[in-house]
Amino acid sequence: MKALFISLQFYLFISMFAAPVFAGDPFAGSNIYVLHCVSCHGGDGRGEIAGTPSFREGRLMSRSTSELMNTVKSGRNLMPAFRGVLDEQQIDDVITYIRTFN
């Protein structure tokens, strides 16, 4: 019993320092995409406006989730920043969804 208690204490101690892990939900991401992204990126992710990148290009979609999250938060070129509009989980959800285009 004492070993179990020590193991539990160790687990709780370690979990205090663990970074949050987001598991993107592509179904939730599709709703966010329709609300905030489809007018520029199109329903199929190919881009509707000149200069809008396609989510079907390997070059763009090979970026890490962290890089893509920073782009969504801060904006880029014509794309507005979504910091304060979408929370971390919503951004992760939409990134998970756009990865399904590739």
Would you spell out the secondary-structure blueprint of this structure?
Layout: H1 2-15, H2 26-36, H3 38-41, H4 58-61, H5 65-74, H6 88-98
Helix pairs in contact: 2-6, 5-6
Q: Could you please describe the fold and organization of this structure?
A:
The protein is mainly alpha-helical. The protein has one domain: Cytochrome Bc1 Complex, Chain D, domain 2, CATH 1.10.760. Helix content is 53%, strand content 0%. It is built from six helices and no strands. The protein has helices spanning 2-15, 26-36, 38-41, 58-61, 65-74, 88-98. Helix 2 (26-36) crosses helix 6 (88-98) and helix 5 (65-74) packs across helix 6 (88-98). The chain is globular and about 30 Å long. It starts with a helix and ends with a helix.
